[in-house]
Each structure stands twice: as C-alpha cells, then as structure tokens.
Design goal:
Structural class: mainly beta
CATH class: Mainly Beta
Number of helices: 2
Oligomer: single chain
Number of domains: 1
Length: 116
C-alpha cells in the first residue's frame, strides 16, 4: 500500500466497518505537520450525513435538529488499500462519537450587521 492517498479521493466516500456495516461518508480529514513539514493524517471524521455538514445552510439545519455528529476514526484503523472503498478495521460501536459544534466558524453574525 502506498503511503500517500489524494484527499479528494476520500472525502464523500462511504466507509464500512469490519463487519460490513455502513458507518457513513468521510466528512473531513484531520492532519498535522511533522518535523519535516509533511502533512500526517491523525484521524478521519466519518458520519451518516457525511460531507453535508460542510454546507452552511443544510449543516445549520442538522445542528438545530441535533443530527450533526461524526465518528472519529484514527488513522491506523482506516484501511485505504482501495481509496474508492475505504473501510474501518474495527466495529462501528468501538468508534468515538463527537457532536459537531453548534455553528461553523464564519457563520456567526457580527453585532449590528444584517444577513440579507
């Protein structure tokens, strides 16, 4: 397996667990820079509504209905031998669940400003 995978091949792809159950779609990839200034993946954010939370209007609606949450899949638990069909090497119930914040950065209204 290659050490590098293009991020655009993963975002939006459906992820299944070790038992073949659907976890959701890859919504985001969390990475940091190492000593050599290379990006190193820490974890993948995978959710049933996947990348839809990235869109402001729909994402805000999900947050208001408490449907905005994702699984955090550590990098070492994601099998990317076929980037078009990523899969977790553990079961869905073993993954950490995280609620998305109530508002995305940049969506907060500034006092005294009108939205329209």
């Amino acid at each position: 397996m290659s050490d590098e995978v293009q991020a655009e091949l993963l975002v939006g792809r459906t992820v299944h667990d070790a038992d073949g159950n659907r976890i959701g779609r890859v919504a985001d990839i969390v990475a940091h820079r190492d000593e050599e200034d290379a990006l190193v993946v820490k974890e993948y954010l995978v959710g049933p509504r996947g990348w839809l939370h990235r869109f402001a209007v729909h994402g805000l609606g999900l947050r208001l209905r408490r449907l905005a949450w994702v699984y955090r899949v550590p990098w070492d638990l994601m099998d990317l031998q076929d980037p078009r069909r990523p899969r977790a090497t553990c079961r869905r119930d073993e993954l950490k669940i995280e609620d998305l914040p109530p508002r995305k950065r940049g969506l907060a209204r500034r006092p005294g400003r009108r939205l329209a």
